[in-house]
Write a structure and sequence with these properties.
Helices cover 62% and strands 8% of the residues. It has three domains: 151 residues, Globin-like, CATH 1.10.490; 118 residues, Alpha-Beta Plaits, CATH 3.30.70; 86 residues, Arc Repressor Mutant, subunit A (Orthogonal Bundle), CATH 1.10.10.2840. The chain is of the alpha+beta class. The longest helix has 47 residues.
């Protein structure tokens, strides 16, 4: 660091000092013109020293790409230039400090956090304070240091405004994109690629993914509802997108271990009534079919008076089929009826007789002229083949409906 320069002889006009009203009612003295000139001339050097100090003191700054480091250099230079203008025109501080951060592209607000920005400002101000004895003419040191501290306060407020504005813009954009993704899933796709959209929303995981739907508590406070959904999901470490659509609250969760467990974790956000959860899929691309089944289940759920809460869309296959869901009818045919029909007449005849006599083993055995243990064995095979146990009420109901649909299909 060079030796301090001796003050130049006064020219009368530039050496004259006047009292100006400062911010907050404080008295502010105008500095010598020579002091201002020295600061202007040293702006580039101070900015370079500030960036060098950041590189020494801040490990995260060293890891930044070259283009982003150049942004920081531009901001530092603009800050020092703005400081000179602050000293010349103290009433113009809000506009000037706003222009400091206007030199960097908006992308910097997403790359360099507010906490990092505070550290950058601190290092720049520290270097500027070290330069005060070299830049100030005789008698200006104290006033220059005081104005530097005031300016640093305004710079901190300006940074807060920049990041607050960026956060508001980002929040509004995220809300629109989130609503667009939900709309696409409800309509069955066709509104952009969901993978790229959820990536833009900052999803950390790629799956498993499921959809949960129920009644929205209050559509007039949809934003509060969605904020609570995000809070509960993040507390359990899920990625989430959610939306209120036609009175229904639709929530898509990623990074789940079990769909029913995930649905129970966010159950408090739903109003009274059925809550339906889908199966898990590997990524958000498969969430369209899951969402379609969940919404179908939500429409059909009132038909099952004793349905649990939450209930899986697969458990509602009979009600969904009766409500006109072609996917549910196809699933009952594919996974219940056809495995039994392909297994031969013995199992199909046994389960048909068992259902027709009201679920009595002995009556079925008498009707088929076999031992009750034989009936038990056949019914157990039926459950293994189709995934539904005919000895439980729900399983018998699903099998009975699947057999009915299968016979109608065969006759057609």
């Amino acid at each position: 660091m060079s030796e301090r320069r001796s003050p130049l002889p006064s020219d009368g006009a530039s050496d004259e000092r006047a009292s100006l009203p400062g911010r907050g009612g404080a008295e502010k003295r105008r500095l010598h013109e020579e002091t201002l000139r020295r600061i202007e001339q040293a702006a580039g050097r101070v900015a370079t020293q500030s960036v060098a100090r950041m590189d020494d003191e801040l490990p995260w700054f060293r890891a930044l790409p070259a283009d982003q480091r150049s942004w920081v250099m531009l901001v530092a230079q603009a800050g020092i230039a703005s400081f000179v203008e602050w000293l010349r025109s103290p009433d113009d501080v809000l506009r000037l400090t706003g222009e400091v951060f206007g030199t960097a592209p908006r992308a910097m607000a997403r790359t360099v956090t507010l906490q990092h920005t505070v550290e950058l400002v601190r290092e720049t101000i520290a270097v500027a304070e070290e330069q005060v004895p070299l830049l100030a003419t005789a008698g200006d040191e104290g006033a220059l240091r005081e104005e530097l501290l005031r300016f640093s306060r305004e710079i901190a407020f300006a940074a807060a405004r920049v990041y607050a504005g960026a956060a508001e813009s980002r929040g509004a954009w995220d809300a629109r994109l989130e609503a667009l993704v939900i709309e696409g899933l409800v309509r069955g796709g066709g509104i952009g690629a969901p993978e790229s959209q959820v990536a833009a929303l900052g999803w950390r995981t790629t799956g498993p993914v499921t959809t949960v739907a129920g009644i929205a508590p209050d559509q007039e406070h949809a934003q509060d509802i969605l904020a609570e959904v995000h809070r509960l999901a993040h507390r359990t470490n899920y990625d989430v997108i959610a939306g209120v659509h036609g009175g229904r609250l639709i929530v898509v969760l990623s990074g789940i271990a079990d769909p029913l467990t995930a649905a129970r974790d966010i159950l408090p956000v739903f109003a009274d009534g059925p809550v339906v959860v889908g199966w898990s899929t590997s990524d958000v691309a498969g969430a369209t079919a899951v969402t379609r089944a969940v919404l179908s289940g939500l429409r059909a759920a009132p038909a099952w008076g004793g349905a649990p809460r939450p209930v899986s869309a697969e458990a509602l296959l009979p009600e969904r089929a009766l409500a006109g869901d072609a996917d549910a009818r196809a699933e009952l045919l594919e996974h219940v009826y056809r495995p039994l029909a392909n297994a031969g007449d013995v199992l199909l005849e046994t389960v048909t007789a068992f259902l027709e006599v009201g679920g009595s083993l002995e009556a079925t055995a008498r009707a088929l002229f076999v031992h009750p243990n034989t009936v038990r064995y056949r019914l157990r095979r039926v459950g293994e083949l189709c995934g539904e146990s005919p000895t439980t009420p729900r399983g018998a109901y699903a099998i009975h409906l699947a057999l009915t649909l299968g016979r109608l299909e065969a006759s057609a």
